[in-house]
Amino acid sequence: MRTAGHPARAPRVRGKEPAACRPHGTATAYERKHMNKAELVSAIAKRADVPASTVDSVLNGLQDELVDAITRGEKVAVSGLITVERTQRSARTGRNPQTGESIDIPAANTVKVTAGSNLKKAASSVPV
Q1: Which of 3, 10, 56, 112 to pair with 71, CA 20 to 30 A apart?
Q2: Is 10 helix (H, G, I), strand (E, B) or coil?
């Protein structure tokens, strides 16, 4: 769908204006910066004044231990930060949205991640 009189310009969708049209420093949800593992390692290394290789080893160890704990069915809680646990989702009947046909969805194990009080407080302190 093109706008009348401007065959090369796509119509605007509310909340998705080009960055040049918005005030400086305001970003949509799609433009917010995401931190990848390498950036996280670098930031922690700088903050803790330790080598990045040490931080990377610690994060890898944390990942391995979380995977092992979930496999064993244990709950891992880092007070104030995060809680990770395995939960069970029971079998249920669903519906194929294209055909409307009923389908059986089997029971499954899944992972539940809950933010701790410090993360919740940090999120709520940022203006919307």
Answers
A1: 56
A2: coil
Enter the pTM of the model.
Answer: 0.67
Say whether 127 sits in a helix, a strand or coil.
Answer: coil
DSSP one-letter string for 32-74: S----HHHHHHHHHHHHTS-HHHHHHHHHHHHHHHHHHHHHT-
pLDDT in tens, 16-57: 555 555 555 555 555 668 999 999 999 999 999 999 999 999
Integer angstrom CA distances of residue 110 from 32, 65, 83, 86, 106: 28, 17, 14, 6, 12
> Which residue's structure tokens are 């992972």?
111
Count of H-run helices and E-run strands, the chain: 3, 5
